[in-house]
Specification:
Chain lengths: 355, 355
Amino acid sequence: MKIAILPGDGIGPEIVAQAVKVLNVLGESFELETAPVGGAGYAAHGHPLPEGTLALAKAADAVLFGAVGDYQYDNLERQFRPEQAILGLRKNLGLFANLRPAILYPELAGASTLKPEVVSGLDILIIRELTGDIYFGQPRGVRECPDGPFKGQREGFDTMRYAEGEIRRIAHVAFQAAQKRDKRLTSVDKANVLETFQFWKDIVIDVHKEYPDVALDHMYVDNAAMQLVRAPKKFDVMVTGNMFGDILSDAAAMLTGSIGMLPSASLDANNKGLYEPSHGSAPDIAGKGIANPLATILSAAMMLRYSLNREEQANRIEAAVKHVLAQGLRTADIHEAGTTLVGTEAMGDAVVKAL
Amino acid sequence: MKIAILPGDGIGPEIVAQAVKVLNVLGESFELETAPVGGAGYAAHGHPLPEGTLALAKAADAVLFGAVGDYQYDNLERQFRPEQAILGLRKNLGLFANLRPAILYPELAGASTLKPEVVSGLDILIIRELTGDIYFGQPRGVRECPDGPFKGQREGFDTMRYAEGEIRRIAHVAFQAAQKRDKRLTSVDKANVLETFQFWKDIVIDVHKEYPDVALDHMYVDNAAMQLVRAPKKFDVMVTGNMFGDILSDAAAMLTGSIGMLPSASLDANNKGLYEPSHGSAPDIAGKGIANPLATILSAAMMLRYSLNREEQANRIEAAVKHVLAQGLRTADIHEAGTTLVGTEAMGDAVVKAL
Ligand SMILES: CC(C)[C@H](C(=O)O)[C@@H](O)C(=O)O
Ligand SMILES: CC(C)[C@H](C(=O)O)[C@@H](O)C(=O)O
């Protein structure tokens, strides 16, 4: 089994190093190979997703990704900016299914900005389609406005679109995920306004016929954003498109107050995947040794479960993370009075020890 | 001065009746004329926005709108569904600027699902562009997928677009609103992915040159959704497109926990406007006399301020609402131990008395 390690920028290298440490003590013979991505890719090879990095990611059985982005790359032309590496990897590897759990560990309930009774025990799974929608739809660009009151002026435009097969495959992923959980799926759309999402809704209803054991409901995206704030624990699994999923999964992650704890998986049709923490590259704290490595370590656990077929090792890592939390160890982002403040390395070491 | 009164469906008629009572005691000689809209429009004339209703709204100096939507209209074809009335009014009246304050009254801090220290004193203004974007962009529909791996299948599609002049005019509204407040404006975009919103950002930066006294910053929509949950009080004014604004303004409203308190204004280029509560038609509680009329009463206050040039009357109404809250009167949606539960009528009467 070959794992591509793409640490990226900012805190990426520090946190990925801890996950690698964890992988190395499992007693498995994984082959790990590292390559630069994002700003680091641009610095090394003039492109955020260098050819060699893409080739490695394609050849590997799974990709462990840190985070990308740093101040010095902010003013590059868009095609060279670090986040293009993420979009390029998703599209080139066909990673259409993004799984974003939003889980609130009981020990960390205080970290949330929401009242404990609203969020404690939160455990929802947001499934975001990741290779379609307005992220990639053509045509797009800036052109002369063809009609209406602004005719002749410049206008920016993009195309939102979802083909039937694209919706079917993400719906299957979502129904199957719900079957393994509380068997409730909320499909989030904007069918009252968008043709794309009326079509989305129709197809999801059709796929539902194959999963009669799952309770399906439909919610408009604006209402979903409200219900996530009002009563997030009512959700089990949510499925939505790329753009709405971008917004809702980040909002859901922030409900926990501990985004430094949240992993994510982006899977292709054969369960090959890219695994990364839900948080960003946090260049402001990079190199200080204070970043929380747990989201990346938990991403490695998801990798073991979904792509490497090592459910038991995944469970071991997740148990080890729970153990260090129960011990009271906390990085700065989740530190509270009465707990023990530790740095990135020490947190990684504690997980290794718990294993 | 002529005001079109469009009560709509569900709780719409009950809450609008209270706002009308309030308008009637101001001692102004407004001419009020009522017409059916939404499901009520469909029931009376076979269309959610009957011709006569649209004509009235066009002829009036301002429109007071309740809410639309009820169970029996859920399965109509989209063009006949109640919400088409809202979209039709916005487009036909050119109501491009939607102002959605999210204010947390100190007395109601307990109603929020967020911790009091995170939201008490919250006072942000979200300005949503309301007649452009993917809501109205052409072409849209269901077609045969023209290329890519799903070629030949059916696909749903929509067009996102913003012309330069459309962005300029909403930016001016936003900068001017910020000038009257804390002089800070956050423009929310997704410039890292969408051409439309890179263009949006460029134009907003250009308009900023005319408002050097306002501090402008830019935030991606996913991050904005997170920051609304994490630290909403950091915002002053936010401006964004129609689709992102739909999601973020509802999320912001829900942060207060008292969406029954939040008014909204939708303005054209000459400050003619449509005023409506931020909440929906709540058919589950319609006719029970328990709905909160304050958002509608406060919408009437916004109408007096923005469209009818009666700032003083607007202030009087807002003071009266604060007064009834201070008296401890609460409708069911905001009721807590130690306060007095009242119904829709009694709340309207209390505001009238306080005036
Ligand atoms: C960096 C950006 C292109 C990306 C996205 O919008 O998908 C990010 O926000 C994410 O959610 O992974
Ligand atoms: C009913 C619907 C078309 C509408 C919208 O999406 O604009 C509503 O959600 C709103 O925000 O007023």
